[in-house]
Write a structure and sequence with these properties.
Layout: H1 5-10, H2 20-30, H3 41-51, H4 58-70
Amino acid sequence: MSDSFYRFLMTQRNPNDHGEVATFAQNAFLDHSFPKQSTDYHELADYLELNGSYLPNMDVFDEAFRLYQEQGTGESQF
């Protein structure tokens, strides 16, 4: 079983990094409703489009999901 996107995203948290992915990770950590077990791009994107007011735009999620896939833990977008 592969790690969830959330678990990957938590590896990107860094209080000294003010980049978009690190900021997204910190905000997702504070979002108690975030789908923590999901590995599915579409499920996560749908959630963030409705509830991710902390994201400046969905490009940040796309970049984080690309990194997740590159690490070999994520499912394909399609």
